[in-house]
Design a protein that fits this description.
Keywords: Aminopeptidase, Hydrolase, Manganese, Protease. By secondary structure, the chain is of the alpha/beta class. The chain contains 16 helices and 19 strands. The strands form 4 sheets. Strands 6, 7, 8, 9, 10, 13, 14, 15 and 17 form a 9-stranded mixed sheet that branches. Strands 2-3-1-4-5 form a 5-stranded mixed sheet, sandwiched between helices. A 3-stranded mixed sheet has the order 11-12-16, covered by helices on one side. Helix 9 runs antiparallel to helix 12. The protein is elongated and about 80 Å long.
């Protein structure tokens, strides 16, 4: 799933066509510096540098002398991102060299947007690639952008794959492949061994499936600060005995989006050789129904020893994450990050395009916001609101997995997870969607990474790398 050769830059700029990108406000000044025939041609084509528009300027003999790309006005640029992604799809086949005096962050956005525009999910149907290729722009770190694109590709491919081919065993296989590529160590606890190894809630959620539940544990790196990434790997979620209606179950192949995101982020970290010690934990399960399924009103005892009353079997993600978080917390990392497609309430709050996050660490939050701006990967901080703690305490057990009332569902889920992190001083939780509902520049409809690029950009400052 990392072999997308189309998501790489062209190897050479020999005979590459110059590609000039303009905002509306810069076009007139450039035109004034051009020969009369170029000015006449561009004006005749009606090119105004509107966002996503192109104009190819011919040379003698009919070849393309140069290509112009429109970036729109300031308002359109502020409203969108990856404008070069829509440009790449419209240009004629060939190799292009971006000529620009744009700021470094803008050039990185253009370069990454171009690569992401080449993505296509081809596991079940071949799709023709775009014919236009880009030479990595001067001043842009080619290896870094290609590593980010490859990590995003891995995330998208994993989410897009249906549960028939992406069950807990397949997710394990993807993690093993990634570990082999980067020389990481990996161990997996499966089936009833979860009980023997004290992961009772992972076992309870996944035991009704024909494919046994498991906990994937991957480690990499031998120097630097420690980073733990914990990703929700619910490969399909029927809702359990509190079964989902059909409309809600239709996209549940993406309920392992947290696991897919941390694996994509792990690839970026390892491919770039960041000087840190990485641990990736993924509880991989299917929330299915049979005679052994866990039930509403059951009380489960977690790895940490906290008891949990089950008031809805469709609030299973926080249960499997709790055991994984408790394991990570036993050898506290310098920073622990949890990523999960956890609550519909998060989508109601911020929609499908923004990654809400929770943290008690102001320095990490500041680094993350700066990283999000740099990486064009929007995030928004929500609070660990302590006055809501009583909502997750049912009285009959330590915790309630599905508080009644329906208010603040994203926050109560985050508070639930925080109960299992008592030794690690720095903890962040992301409630991501993992799905692009409508195609946009660089983001076709389907699985998508959220938050990973922002985290990657934040790590050097957040962890003193």
């Amino acid at each position: 799933m990392l072999n997308h050769t189309r998501l790489k830059f062209a190897d050479t700029n020999d005979d590459a066509v110059r590609l000039l990108a303009f905002g509306v406000d810069a076009l007139d000044d450039w035109l004034e510096s051009q020969p009369q025939d170029v000015q006449a041609w561009v004006k005749a084509q009606g090119f105004k540098a509107a966002e996503g528009t192109i104009c190819t300027v011919p040379a003698d003999g009919g070849a393309i002398a140069m290509a112009l790309a429109g970036l729109g006005d300031a308002q359109s640029r502020a409203r969108g991102r990856f404008p070069m992604a829509s440009i790449a799809a419209k240009l004629p086949a060939g190799t292009y060299q971006l000529v620009s005096d744009h700021a470094a962050d803008d050039l990185e956005e253009h370069a990454l947007g171009w690569l992401l525009s080449q993505y296509a999910f081809e596991a079940y149907r071949a799709q023709p690639p775009h014919g236009a290729r880009l030479v990595c722009p001067d001043g842009v770190n080619k290896d870094r952008i290609e590593a980010i694109a490859a990590g995003e590709t891995l995330t998208r491919d994993l989410i897009n794959t249906p549960a028939s081919d992406m069950g807990p065993n397949d997710l394990e296989g993807a993690a093993r492949t990634l570990a082999k590529i980067h020389g990481a160590a990996i161990t997996v606890v499966t089936g009833d061994d979860l009980l023997a190894e004290n992961f009772p809630m992972i076992h309870a959620v996944g035991r009704a499936s024909a494919t046994p539940p498991r906990l994937i544990d991957m480690t990499w790196g031998d120097e630097g600060p420690t980073l733990a990434l914990v990703g929700k790997g619910v490969c399909f979620d029927t809702g359990g005995l509190n079964i989902k209606p059909a409309a809600s179950m239709g996209l549940m192949k993406k309920d392992m989006g947290g696991a897919a995101t941390v694996l994509g982020l792990a690839h970026m970290i390892m491919a770039l050789g960041l000087k840190l010690k990485l641990r990736v934990l993924i509880p991989a399960v299917e929330n299915s129904i049979d005679g052994s399924a866990y039930r509403p009103q059951d009380i489960l005892t977690s790895r940490k020893g906290l008891t949990v009353e089950i008031n809805n079997t469709d609030a299973e993600g926080r249960l499997v994450l709790a055991d994984a978080l408790a394991l990570a917390d036993e050898t506290p990392p310098d920073l622990m990050i949890c990523m999960a497609t956890l609550t519909g309430a998060a989508r109601v709050a911020v929609g499908p395009d923004i990654s809400p996050f929770f943290t008690g660490d102001a320095a990490f939050a500041d680094a993350l916001r700066a990283g999000a701006r740099q990486a064009r990967d929007p995030v928004w901080e929500l609070p660990f609101h302590d006055p809501y703690e009583p909502l997750i305490e049912p009285g009959i057990a330590d915790l309630d997995n599905a508080p009644k009332g329906g208010f603040a569902g994203t926050i109560t889920a985050a508070l639930f997870l925080r109960r299992f992190v008592s030794n690690s001083a720095r903890f962040a939780h992301f409630d991501v969607y993992g799905w692009q509902p409508v195609a946009a520049a660089g983001r076709p409809k389907g699985g998508v990474g959220m938050g990973a690029r922002a985290i990657l950009a934040a790590l050097p400052k957040a962890m003193n790398l």
